[in-house]
Design brief:
alpha+beta; about 240 residues; 2 domains; Cyclophilin; Gyrase A, domain 2; single chain
Length: about 240
Amino acid sequence: MIDLPGKSDLQVYPINEGAVTIEFGKTIDEDIVNRVNAFDRLLNEKVLPGMYQTVPAYASLTVFFDLLTILDAPLPGKTGFDKARAYLLGLNEQASDFEEAGQSEIITIPVCYGGVFGYDLEYVASHTKLDSNDVIKLHSEVVYKVCMVGFTPGFAYLGGLNPALEVPRKATPVKVSPGAVGIAGSQTGVYPLETPGGWQIIGRTPMRLFDAKRSQPSLLKANDKVKFEPISLSEFEKYSGG
């Protein structure tokens, strides 16, 4: 574990011979998410020798690299970890310049709330002591930020949920359809694939969040901005071609 200069709470951990994780904090916080994404953008512009993948999370960034390539790189240190650490130490001083960069346009996702598509909407309304229409209004009026993508391919964890809508996860996961929009704790998100899930489902989008045939399979990536737009069942069917 190594403290990085400039940001005293940053630490670097070796994961294995070809990967390290940079930890930016231990809480879910928008400022920390911004720092993770800023460092990720910088690192993908000024690539670590041998690097082939970065995986940003809420408070950390994992960097994967080819060991033989980095060992041959003219960087201080004898091990792959030492050399990666030295490179990251140098980049850290430049990361703050990227924190305001990379602003993306808002991606609008249509959602048909309630009914057969949002079978947990009434539970969310009851738990939060709100009317169902108020739940829909509060959920759809926010511009969310994609904090990280994971769990399943294309599943984006969205930050910015109104605290009034916070609800617990289900005790037992159930099968969830592609496009299902859910809430769990202080997060909201869209299931891109059919998968077991424990989030409270309040609606469904006809958009495809993940398609392996696309040049960029995942519609959403870290740092994107997202807004939900309520649509009717007939609009959903029209969008879906039904």
